[in-house]
Amino acid sequence: MSGALDIATAVLLVAGGLFCIVGGVGLHRFSDFYQRTHAASVTDTAGAGLMLLGLMLQGGLSMVTLKLVLVLAFLLFSSPAIAHALVKAAHGHGLALELEIEDERGGDGDAAG
Amino acid sequence: MRLGVLALLAAVWLALSGPYTLHGWLIFAFGVVSVAFVWRLYLALERAAGGGFEFFRASAWLRLPRFLVAFAVKVAAANLHVTKLILSPRIELHPRLRRVPASQKTSFGQVLYANFITLTPGTITLDLRDDELLVYALDAESEADVMDGSMDRDVLRIEGGSN
Question: How many structural domains comprise chain A?
Answer without folding.
Answer: 1
